[in-house]
Amino acid sequence: MKDCNTNQQQEQSEELPFDVEWQSFPSHSAFQFTSESRPASPTITPVVSRPPITQEDTTCNVTDSSHLPSKPPKTSDTSFSREDEEVKGDVDASMHDKEEAGDTSSCSSHTIVQENASTNKLFSLTTKSVLIAVLLIVTLIITILVAVHSVLLGQRSEDSVPATEFTDWSTVRPTVSAPIETVSPSSFPTTSPTLAPTTLSPTKTFDDIITDFLFQENSNVSSADDPAVQKAVTWLVDEANAAQSILFPLDQKYLQRFGLLILYFSVDPNDTDNIIQPSNNSRLPNQEMRNQDECSWPVMTCDANGMLTAVKLSNRQLDGTLPVECWGFLSNLKSIDFSRNELSGSIPEGVYDISRLEEIFLYKNRLTGVISPKIGYLWSLRRFHLSHNQISGPIPGELASSESRIRQLRYFNVHRNQMTGTIPANMRLRQLFSMDLGYNQFDGTLPSFSEAVRLRHLYLDHNRFSGTFPSSVLNAGDGRLNTLFINDNEFAGTFPGDHQQLNYMVELTIENNNFVSMEKNSTCQLDVFSGGELVEFKSDCLVCRCGVDFMCRHCQL
Q1: What pLDDT band is residue 398 in, cutting at 50, 70 and 90?
Q2: Which end of the chain is more exposed for a tag (fewer CB within 10 A), N or C?
Q3: Cα–Cα distances in Å, from 191 out to 294, 306, 414?
Q4: Complete DSSP assignment for 91-116
């Protein structure tokens, strides 16, 4: 038995350096942690598991000791892992078996392993506790920072509200933004973006803001007492009150909206909703047009920038007047059409200030007054149709082309008015295609029209023109005149026949004048049977000497 113990002690002494080396970190009492420092982790060498000790091993057969494992090599692993705990468990089991076998010499080794394992486990638990504490502290700090940030943001939001009681709103242009409430849907598409609501001061209303902008910052409205102007302002204020915001920026387009409303309420002053549409009896402007860009309103045309270029309000039973105030807000207009209504009053001077105007259609109304000399400012004007009104006065000489600039005027129609005076000479209207001066009170002699090289239709009937009829008029339009009406005037003498090249003449009326004869050779050869284009020829019977029934059958006795 002594030999057995001696062998076991020898075996244990051979293996003890390996175990001690693996557990060669300081004892539990050596780890004294302070708040200032912490020792570095000990160097741990993993232990290879030994095979379990069986009952046969207790016989301490020396010759059977060859099955014991050799001492494993050292490793440099410095981490403590889940495998270290498994190794510790195997060592505990082995030492327990030896203790049951009465191996008193192993007790000392087992005690050393248990103390070191306990120290290792304590170190692991301490490390985890520290990490958890650090995580909790970081989480607490983040929570505190988020709370402080939220409080600061709320305070900044309150500080950002202007002290409106000290703000001078007469000099501040309000910021416009989107409505807080949802407005009623409209059948017209919205073409402009919706913005955020305007911030109001306790002493400022939408009425104050809108009127300050319209009248204090702009000089295009000379009288705020005009009923149409007052209605337009009321409409804009009601629109803002209904939406609890000013939906559109207070800029040039807002002024355009204002000018268009003035125009509406002026041409139909007897209706608060304005303008009857014959097709469906709905009115303009109506409730559905609120909160909609004016370019989406009916009968409006705008360019790509949202600026109004055309207004067409023809045949709508309008019985008001053309406004004085609105035209400065509609400076991008190219075409206006108020034809076939019952408008009265004169043509406002502001119309002639719209330099981009190309078309003016005001025919079949009850307009009075004169054509302003300011029409000479309209160099882009191409169509001017003012027939069937009560316009008086002469054709302004300012309508003529200048020496350096040719007008683009193609249609000039003042048929059935009360205009007087003579036709200005040397107008040089080279683009003129049709001129209708019929049924007026023009007098005097005619200019030559020789420079009207594109003229095709000339109506001078039912006036008081006198003198001999110039043969140059027959050659107007570079010899391609199609229509010539000079009937019911006071022309005298012989109607000229110097129109050999007038093979394009379709209508020629010369009756009810004071002609005593006509040069029949060339005039009588204009009919279609003679190779010409003439299908209608009217003259006095005493003058017609063509000798064919076709030319003189409609003559006036």
Answers
A1: very high
A2: C
A3: 9, 8, 39
A4: HHHHHHHHHHTT-THHHHHHHHHHHH
